[in-house]
Amino acid sequence: MKKAIAIVEFATISAGIKAADMMAKTANIEIIESQTVCPGKYMTVIAGILSAVTIAVETAKHAYGERYISGFILGNPHESLFPAFHGTTKMEEIHALGVFETFDAASAVLAADTAVKAAIVDLIEIRLAKGMCGKSFATLTGEISAVEAAIAHATTVTVEAGMFLDSCVIANPDKQLAKFIL
Fold this sequence. Notes:
2 domains, four-stranded antiparallel beta sheet
């Protein structure tokens, strides 16, 4: 299990790529995702033990600080975040479906972590920024009351950060829709 996760976002693609390379060479971390995001920014998600993640992020921020936009380090992330980044969470069916959408990637990850720690739900996917003009969203499933509680907690986190866009809970999604979510 990873002990920490971080997201860093840079204003230019070249600075973001150089920073991602520097983080990987500076500390024993795993790059979970590293990609361009709209509109022409670059984002990298890393994981590892907290000290290594902190060293990697601080090194990149120091080296490319003038192009650093935002980011965060989250210690003790819920382990369901990792397969959700890749859309590889294995599920057979959706009971109730929860969706929350944010204006940025960092808020979506923090909200997803909050949601799965607040209620007994399964995180299906976290989709970060790419192809969505920098917006991000996450989907989760579980019993209706648990999904409602998880979405409420995720919404609170994103509203407080000023990054909330929208959310919904669908009690029993139609099987035609569910096959596209799973």
